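User: I'll paste a sequence; please echo it back and then give the predicted structure.

Assistant: Echoing your sequence first, then the prediction.
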Amino acid sequence: MAENCDNRAVAAQRPQTYAAARRPCKDAPVTDAGWPPHTYVTRPYRQRIPRGPRADRLLREVTVAMPARIAELEVPLERPVAAMTTASAGALRHLDLVHGRTMAGLNHLQLRTEAIDSSKIEHVEASLADYGRALLGIGANASAVSMASATQAMERLIREADTTRKITSDAILQAHRDLFARDPDEAAGAGRFRTVQNWVGGSDYAPRDALHVPPPPETVLGHIEDMVAFANRDDLSPIAQAAIVHAQFESIHPFIDGNGRIGRALIHAVLRRRRASRHLAVPIASALVSHRDRYFAALNDYRAGSVATIVAMLAASTTIATTESWKTAETLESVRASWGEAAGGPRPGSAAYRLLDLLTEEPILNARLVTERLGIEDPEATIDALERAGVLTRARRTRRSPVWIAPAVLAEVEDLSARIQLQARQLPYGPR
């Protein structure tokens, strides 16, 4: 059988087939030289607590992938991919320049779309209403809480990169703590790098037939600090830098759980630190979620010594997310204008006018949020007036703790994700 991109993940884990794993992937845009592939080391392994099938309990060695140190490496990109990164970053900066300062609501909706779709890559899904309740701290299911926590983790990493102009291991740990602080099963390990061997794919009980076995736990901190040094450089294309930081982080896999969501949040942290965008975080994960297999295969290409596939995929995904975000900005402006007419044209500065502005940023809210953000003494009266005008709808199953939603904005959140995914399915870049 001819090797394709999907079975490379397995081949790359076997030293005897490593030469095959390094062959260029069919349909990859270019092949590149000068980027070191992972090396593979066989180490002793034994389960701490015997469990699972007999083959898992008897496993005595494991082959781990050792990422190269990248802090000072040059990034080898051929002209077509380099041009893609330049164009993608330019389009993102233009969107940010035009809408970033004036539309705070656009950034919040983009962040929520990104967190939702990043969670979907990990098969964590919930309704927008449940997600909104989780953001408000009101009872919601575990998936919704997880999605809300992913939003907080991403916001933290972006904020830290924006204010300090640095990517730090401490910020990564804090974001991981945000991600799992409300998870009763994972809270004990929240904000800590792993101290045990982990793996991706294969058996649930031991790294038998795993798709990727990251480096040993005692090497994690060194690899992270090396990655952080690379992330803090200013002599690279921001898009390429973000893609490589993400791929390196996923290869290190420094946590027991949450690596994918933290790793994708790092993309935005790098772009914000490099000022590719000063205010907005376009929903890149919405493009990646449409092709999980191609996305994971691009990470495997990176481990085999090619940066071109993941860089091209991120550049194309960013361009698509940026293009569709322009449409969302225009939709939000139209929705806001229609609300003003439906509400009888409230005067600027009035409680109703300010609440309409807030809804483009927070389309799921309760009375407490309105009081905290706007200082309105009687928020229920203003909310009721907008509900009568058809701007707001009370969410179902919130009788005890009422929550209202702005259906027009939530519809745009869903449509933004759907449009990005539709365009991304036609991407010609990366493994197929």
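The first helix runs from residue 5 to 11. The mean pLDDT is 87.
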